[in-house]
Amino acid sequence: xxxxxxxxxxxxxxxxxxxxxxxxxxxxxxxxxxxxxxxxxxxxxxxxxxxxxxxxxxxxxxxxxxxxxxxxxxxxxxxxxxxxxxxxxxxxxxxxxxxxxxxxxxxxxxxxxxxxxxxxxxxxxxxxxxxxxxxxxxxxxxxxxxxxxxxxxxxxxxxxxxxxxxxxxxxxxxxxxxxxxxxxxxxxxxxxxxxxxxxxxxxxxxxxxxxxxxxxxxxxxxxxxxxxxxxxxxxxxxxxxxxxxxxxxxxxxxxxxx
Length: 258
Hints:
Elements: H1 8-12, H2 20-23, H3 26-41, H4 48-65, H5 69-76, H6 80-92, E1 97-100, E2 103-106, H7 107-133, H8 136-145, H9 150-179, H10 190-217, H11 234-240, H12 242-256
Antiparallel strand pairs: 1-2
Helix pairs in contact: 3-7, 3-8, 3-12, 4-7, 4-12, 6-7, 8-9
């Protein structure tokens, strides 16, 4: 699977580096992040200290990977919609009430909000670190090495490669409309925009047909050629397991220590 032109948005998430975390095979990092997130979710929400330890573990990974704090903070903004939902829970949830700064709030709602914010934020940060230390094309190769059906990984690969192509086509159509004096001011513009979306779909479909024919003419038989080996050694699996193993100890302590 060649490098090709990876999607610009996905590629921008990657922070180039040569740290030990960058060098780990993608399948090792995928399994480690998935195990870490599951352990975080399994932690009782009342064990506030445990989530602080999880945050320290992620901070250690970020330091090892040399990912700037500012980069992580800027990307965490993606969870703002979930934060807004969580902040509403104390006001709308039922159950016993408690007073905070003179405002009556639901205790179960406060715990629910904390549960969403703590676990959601830790999961988002873990995903950010994964994306920042692994190239998109290698992530897809790692997923394939984990026995994901090739059809799914191929679809994801083409989405990654041609997302920017479709976006550029949309931009050219926007310029063409503007050069003809079009400006979306009210609902009357909906008809023009709908036609533009239809035209974009047809152009994308035709481009896909041409790409498929070009692939067939070059010997495509349903499998993409692999030009980059992402095999993992026992030592690399052991290194990747450091995060979930440490998290497992925290989760076990959270359940056993009252």
